[in-house]
Amino acid sequence: MAEFGPNGAAIGSGDPVSDRDYALTDEKPKIRRVLLACFLCGICASISVALIAAITAFVFSSATSAFGMPAAEFGERSNFMSGAFMAVMMAGFNWVVFYIVIPVTWVMLFFSIGLFPRRGILRHAPYYRWGAIWGALLVGAPTGIFGVAAENQGAFLGALLTGLAIGCAAGLLCASLFLAIVRPKQQLSLPAADVF
């Protein structure tokens, strides 16, 4: 029973204080569908790189034929456009080496954006940022390495920058697919049911 002091102010309660803590615990909730998202994003990465390269090749060849410009040539006149064309062709045949590309992408996704929900990252910007960075590195590095074989700085820059752009676009697609599957904001902000 509550005890009252002068002017009717309550000063205390005769009831013992409960040791039970009703506050939320620091235990993080279990995040679901991360492995499924990494698995599907790895496959999506390989397919999206090939599709983006195919669309780019179609637009490039349509533009050169519409404006009467010479197509990119490999040989003595290697330049920026020939390096870019080489990167587009390499990215277009990305599915040929899927047995290397997909497992590497799975590992990269799991150890980068796959760990973000566990760390409590709710904003979408880090997922998109790191998806774009890793996509650009995974596509831009091989195209840049093969661009070195052209022995021309213009061709190297064309291959590297085109590979970076294709990989960045594919990484953004993979990050959006990951967020659509995992939905970290909804999973981490589910209200906890308190039982009194």
Mean pLDDT figure: 80
Strand order of the largest sheet: 1-2
Task: Give the overall silhouette.
Answer: elongated
What radius of gyration results from the CA coordinates? 27 Å
N- and C-termini, Cα separation: 20 Å
| Unreliable stretches | 18-24, 192-196
Keywords: Membrane, Transmembrane, Transmembrane helix
Transmembrane segments: 34-63, 83-116, 128-150, 156-182
Task: Tell me what the structure shows.
The chain is mainly α and 196 residues long. The chain has one domain (45-188). The chain is built from 6 helices and 2 strands. It has helices at residues 34-67, 80-92, 98-110, 125-148, 153-182, 184-188; strands at residues 2-4, 10-13. The chain has a two-stranded antiparallel sheet with strand order 1-2. A hairpin with a 5-residue loop joins β1 (2-4) and β2. α1 crosses α2 (80-92), α1 (34-67) packs across α5 and α2 (80-92) crosses α4 (125-148). The longest helix is centred in the N-terminal third of the chain and has 34 residues, at 34-67. The two termini are 20 Å apart.
